[in-house]
Specification:
alpha+beta; Putative xylanase fold; putative xylanase like fold; 2 domains; 7-stranded antiparallel beta sheet; 3-stranded mixed beta sheet; 12 strands; about 20% strand; disordered N terminus
Length: about 270
């Protein structure tokens, strides 16, 4: 598939402009999905099929940052773990619904990335992945199944962003700080479950193929440090993800439980379907 290198601005019945790259990739993927009837696949198989299109794509953090005014940014040549996941979920959702226009992809991506599906400044983006789960579950786009497969209640205060304001250029005023703390307060009232790292090896068999694997962290004030997709191999699971270590999208070589145990800041997982 050919890539469009220029970054263009487009508006089409949206409240904000869109900065996008690689429109041919979007269109060709949706057309290929239609011609080959990807929509008949199970959701898990479809997610992995779409995610596999990105294998080898370059890893780059912060592709959504450094914008003066918040707008939808689509960069299909460079992703971090979250944007990779969002692109796969947007493609999968469009294909399953038979919504095969480029504009459908943009609209769906906005639904996943922004609180209540509306772009309204920096803090309307779902920065905490825990809130990403809550918000997208309320829209009926995903389901947190962690508790269903034996997850334990997780009690942790989430306030990393407000405790490290200097790291977030998009927070520019005292009003922004107040709004952020309000978001964190609401987030901390929500009940979450996780599978601790030491129990994960026995739970891998219960993780659905293609489910989202959300890696929780022991870092003070932070909820999640990494996300990817479950790639089932028999009774075990590996991660298909945008790797900061390998600087590209890869299929992990190690099984999920081994991967989590080897990372000192990861203490378990949440499973989202």
């Amino acid at each position: 598939m050919k890539y469009l290198l220029a970054c263009l601005l487009l508006s089409f019945n949206l409240s904000a402009q869109i900065c996008y790259e690689n429109e041919p990739f979007i269109l060709e993927t949706l057309m290929q999905a239609n011609e080959e009837q990807w929509g008949t696949l199970s959701t898990g198989d479809l997610r992995i099929k779409v995610a596999s299109l990105f294998i080898g794509t370059h890893y780059k953090g912060g592709t959504l940052e450094a914008q003066e005014n918040e707008m939808l940014i689509v960069n299909l040549k460079q992703q971090d773990c979250t944007t990779f996941l969002e692109y796969v979920m947007a493609f999968t959702t469009c294909i399953e619904k038979g919504q095969l226009k480029v504009s459908d992809f943009y609209e769906t991506l906005i639904q996943f990335r922004y609180r209540s599906g509306k772009i309204d400044g920096y803090l309307s983006r779902l920065h905490y992945f825990s809130e990403w789960i809550i918000d997208n579950q309320s829209k009926g786009l995903v389901k947190d199944i962690t508790k269903d497969i034996g997850g334990l209640e997780r009690n942790k205060v989430i306030d990393f962003m407000s405790d490290h304001i200097e790291n977030y250029e998009g927070i520019r005023s005292e009003e922004d700080v107040v709004a952020l703390r309000r978001i964190e307060l609401a987030l901390n009232k929500h009940q979450f479950f996780y599978i601790p790292q030491e129990e994960l090896v026995n739970k891998e068999v219960l993780i659905p193929h293609g489910a989202m694997v959300v890696l929780t962290t022991s870092v003070k004030g932070l909820d999640v440090v990494h996300v990817g997709f479950a790639l089932r191999e028999g009774k075990r699971v590996k991660l298909l993800h945008a790797s900061s270590d390998f600087k590209k999208v890869i299929k992990a070589q190690r099984y999920l439980s081994d991967y989590v145990l080897s990372n000192k800041n990861q203490d378990g997982v949440m499973i989202i379907n």
